[in-house]
Amino acid sequence: MSELFDQDPRDTAPPPRNGRSRALIITAVVLVLAFFGLTTFASIYTDRLWFTDTGYGGVFSTLLWTRVVLFLVFGTLMAVAVGAAMWVAFRTRPLFHPSSPEQTGLDRYREAVTPIRTWLLVGISVVLGVFAGTSGIGQWRNYLLWRNGTDFGQEDAEFGKDIGFFVFDLPWLHFLVDYTMAVLVVALIASAVVNYLYGGIRLQSPGDRLSGSAQAQLSVLVGLFVLVKALDYWLDRFDVAYQSGSLIDGVKYTDANAVLPAKNILMGIAVICAILFFVNVWRRTWMLPSVGIALLAVSAILLGMIWPAIMQQFQVKPSEADKEAEYIARNIEATRAAYDLDDVVVAPYSGSAPDVGAGGIATATSSVPLVDPQLVRDTFEQNQQGRAYYSVADVLDVDRYELNGQERALVLGARELDQQNLNDGDKNWSNLHTVYTHGSGIIAAYANQRGTDDNSPGTEIQWAEGNQGVDQDALTTAAGPDGYESRIYFGEQSPDYSVIGKESADSTSVELGLSGANDDDERTTTYDGDGGVPIGSTFRQLMYAIKFGETNFLLSGRVNGNSEVIYNRTPRERVEKVAPWLTIDDDAYPAIVDGKIVWILDGYTTTDRYPGSQRESFEEMTDDSLQQDTGLQTLPTDEINYMRNAVKATVDAYDGTVTLYAWDEDDPILKAWRSAFPGTVEDRSEMSDQLIEHVRYPEDLFKVQRYQFARYHVTDPGDWYQGNDRWAVPTDPKAGSNSLQPPYRLFVNVPEVEAEDGTQLPGGQQWALTSNFVPFGRNNLASFATVNSDATSDDYGRITVLQMQDQNTDGPGTIAAQINTDDEVRGLLRSFETGDSPISYGNLLTAPVAGGLMHIQPIYAARLGASGGYPILQYVVVAIGDRVGIGETLIKAISDALGEDVPDQPTPGTPPDEGGTDPGAGEQSVEQLLQDAQAALDDANAALADGDLAGYQDGVEKANDLIADAIELSGVDPTTTPSADASETPSEEATPAG
Fold first, then answer.
1. Where does the chain cross the membrane (predicted)?
2. Is residue 87 one of the residues assigned to a domain?
């Protein structure tokens, strides 16, 4: 190493050093390095233990070695390039320096550097190499996608290249080019500094200011830089395909006719400049290279900036709609494809009052949820909390279960551990990390039922699962023959870590909790699952003491030879750790699947490089009045222009097992990640039937789609440019701000609609996620959107948009204003507003009913007690057409709005063999029943034409039965309804009964 540099004849002996100061400096450096080294080792070592324990050791190995290799490769390249440039500059330095004030001044620096120049060269190279290697580590995503990417099977409109090139190849190629340019710039600077220090560059010399060797070295480095810049211009051409613009993203008229030709010209000029610099190695004149660089700079300004601006201002803007029409069409097509909007079905809808009576409306809306998951948290805790150290989420979840033979919507939440509610005296390390370790069970209430039925005013919500006042624990009963594990060690409110496991089988259990999911008795227990990392050895205890900064891992008697530590406990955190390439949905929700509580999460694959697609902020697109957090920490950038729900993930609430399932198996980005991390994502076919029943359409994806569809439902470029039919998501009337109305999950009756290709798509009741659209800047209702959220249905994921034919249909804001100003509503609520029971408005829900619309809003009042207050459902308000009704139940509200008595309705959830109606019978609309009746009459007439009198009689009787059902559903007086008579009646016996 010491022979890298020759000894300069002017070198003098170094000054003596202070030995004690040197020893102190070395000791301090060693201690600092030891500290960082030990903490880094502890972090990596404990991470390896965690990944191995969860069964994802392959993910840890792939991430670790990918980062190590990238660090070493790019760090070494930078260090070698810079070191070589400095070494060459020194080895080719002039042997004699001309006498000048400049050189005399530099002599002092040369004398100071001489004793340490070898170490200085190595140190500078290593430091720069570390910085370069660190930048390489940050490219692990781009590297793995480049290495494992496949074709999309679609080409972009401008360049004719497969979309996979833009998504997988281009980011990595850009990094390589940018990295190479950075290396050349740093090497050029280092070479220039050494040449100047040792006389190769003489700024004040009357003769040649550069030695021949210095000129050759600098010419080669600058020539290489300009040559790589030519490659950068070539890659920049493809960036135009997804660059942001004021009108649209992607290629526009000016880009295609000015920017792209300019890039090609600049690329050619850069190649010529590079050649001139290479020739300069022998010609020893800077005239031609200087002219080339000047030409490149001037061309970059004229062709790259001024000419496109002139074209945009004087050629495009005067007729922008015509000039950009082709490119707007491309943008529409790409955006709809990137956000999976191509198959959205838009159908005309009247939006008027429903075409049925009060009875029909009551039947069609009997499954609409009245229990608001945003408001009843306190109700859940007051009635089903069990212990003060338990709580539920601020906003509860809505899911469906098959109970008593019928699908029911439930509002539910996990009863999780909440250590914030412990007394201050109990918040010591032993209690926080070894005693209070887990939650217990699910709390659930029927979303559309109070008391035993909806005809019981004043009763509270009906519990389907809990630990107090529950006659039938429906979810536990439905769990299966293998029992039900109620303990929740992994949840959204779980503490950072817990130490579990007792020293021997005879030792006393110390973990405190309820004795069962539906039992209020307290007991101690010991975790016996597989979700913990063993920490029995002193070495592991030391590593975790360093990781968590806690000495009790080494000192506490609660940590023994059988102890395990569980950490990384929130569902999102666990999924993000094992699949760092996914963007996780904001809402993880609990479900009872195969006898266990599991958290279900949706994982997205995203990119911001889909050519031609509109790029927007993920956070902005998913923002609404309920939004609390996003998956931004897993996104390389907040801006995206492609999204797929590629993965469904589950996290076992007891043992923390993480399972990833490929949901969109055709997604090219998912295919690339599955190739990069083989064996981590299971096939969709591995999902159990019970799990499929609880899979639902993800909210964040639907929010992103509705955000884009608000503008991209328009497919004509001219109309899109004018923006006349642009929609927007309405603001939430109850939020009291500009927050957008969130999508709501409920059972809705979707009418039969016709797709663009003429296919008739069936209607009926669907478990759906719904949203409203209003015209941009207005309050009228433009459309109502639903997406089928039933994963067991063939129509799962089908988005249906009912577009209002009446442009004056009231939107949510107008409906809310009608409710708030209605005299009857104001009169009933006045006593609450002036008393001690404040009013809270629930979600304003919209439901299509028999060709019309109905709006429903529950109203809650606070029930005050000694232990605190909680909201109870006081009234239900409905808006049907221009009529508003209020009542203690939904049925009474409908009756009040229409001025009609509602026939007795079956108790929600009553199975057919217990006196209720068939769950499917009441879900058909009057229109559908009459269509079926007409079809039966057609069959009857066909049978009559064939001489089949028995078939004719059967058809007529079936038609009459269907007509009778329609009359009952509509609430119309049957005495005024004509019979389904046939004109070709052959005899009295064949005449259908009236």
1. 23-45, 65-90, 118-138, 179-198, 218-235, 265-282, 291-310
2. yes
What tokens were used for 418?
């909440």
Q: Where are the alpha helices (DSSP H) in 743-879?
A: 812-821, 823-834
Is 973 contained in some domain? yes
Strand partners, 780: 810
Exposed, middle or buried, 271 (CB in 10 Å: 0-12/13-18/19+)? Answer: middle
Indicate whether 439 belongs to any domain: no
Parallel, antiparallel or unpaired: strands 589-593 and 596-607 = antiparallel
List 596's β-bridge partners, or say none: 485, 593
Separation of alpha carbons 597 and 46, rounded Å? 27
**Dihedral of the CA atoms 477, 483, 487, 488 (nearest 10)?**
-80
Alpha-carbon span 528 to 578, nearest angstrom? 23
Amino acid, single-letter form, for residue 334: A
203: containing domain: 70-209
CA 869 to chain centre: 35
Q: What is the CB neighbour count within 10 angstroms for residue 650?
A: 25
Q: How many other C-beta atoms are found inside a 10 Å radius of the C-beta of residue 991? A: 14
Task: Specify the pLDDT at position 15.
Answer: 54
Reading the block at residue 205, the tokens are 């010399």
Task: List CB contacts of 469: < 8 A, sequence separation 6 or more.
Answer: 383, 463
Which of 146, 174, 209 terminates a domain? The answer is: 209
Residue whose tokens read 């940590």? 559
Report d(CA 805, CA 436) in Å as an integer.
Answer: 58
Beta strand 681-682 pairing with 390-391: unpaired
pLDDT digits (tens, 9 = 90+) for 30-80: 888 889 989 999 999 999 999 999 999 999 999 999 999 999 999 999 999
Q: Which of 395, 437, 442, 396 is nearest to 418 (CA)?
A: 437
Bridge partner residues of 201 (DSSP): 210
Tokens coding 586: 């904001």
Burial class for 452, CB neighbours closer than 10 Å (0-12, 13-18, 19+): exposed
Dihedral sign for Cα atoms in the order 900, 903, 907, 911: negative
Please check whether residue 693 lies inside any domain of the structure: no
Tokens of 201: 């560059």
What residues contact 72, with CB distance under 8 A and at least 6 apart? 133
CA distance linking residue 589 with residue 597, whole number of Å? 10
The residues facing 94 across adjacent strands are none
The pLDDT of residue 471 is: 42
The pLDDT assigned to 927 comes to: 59
Please check whether residue 791 is in contact with residue 689, taking contact to mean a CB–CB distance below 8 angstroms.
Answer: no
Q: For residue 288, list its beta bridge partners.
A: none
Tokens of 137: 């580590």
Tally of domains within the chain: 2
Give the ranges where 240-259 is alpha helix by DSSP (H): 253-254
Domain boundary pick from 190, 209, 228: 209
Q: What is the DSSP letter of 978?
A: P
Cβ-Cβ contacts under 8 Å for 568 (sequence gap 6 or more): 50, 574, 577
CA distances 384 to 186, 442, 459, 468, Å, are 66, 10, 16, 6
List CB contacts of 367: < 8 A, sequence separation 6 or more.
Answer: 409, 448, 746, 747, 765, 908
CA distances 695 to 263, 372, 599, Å, are: 49, 21, 11
Report the C-alpha gap between 53 and 726 in whole angstroms: 52
Rounded CA gap, 210 and 543, in Å? 57
For residue range 100-127, what is the model confidence (pLDDT) as tens digits? 665 666 667 677 777 777 888 898 999 9
Which residues face 786 on adjacent strands?
770, 800
Strand-pair partners of 886: 877
- The predicted model scores a pTM of 0.84
Q: 260 is written with which tokens?
A: 């792209």
Cα distance between residue 309 and residue 301, in whole Å:
11
Question: Any residues with CB less than 8 A from the CB of 626 and at least 6 apart, and which?
Answer: 374, 395, 742
CA distance 729 to 781: 10
Distance in angstroms (rounded) separating the CA atoms of residues 476 and 478 = 5
User: Position of tokens 């328009």?
Assistant: 714
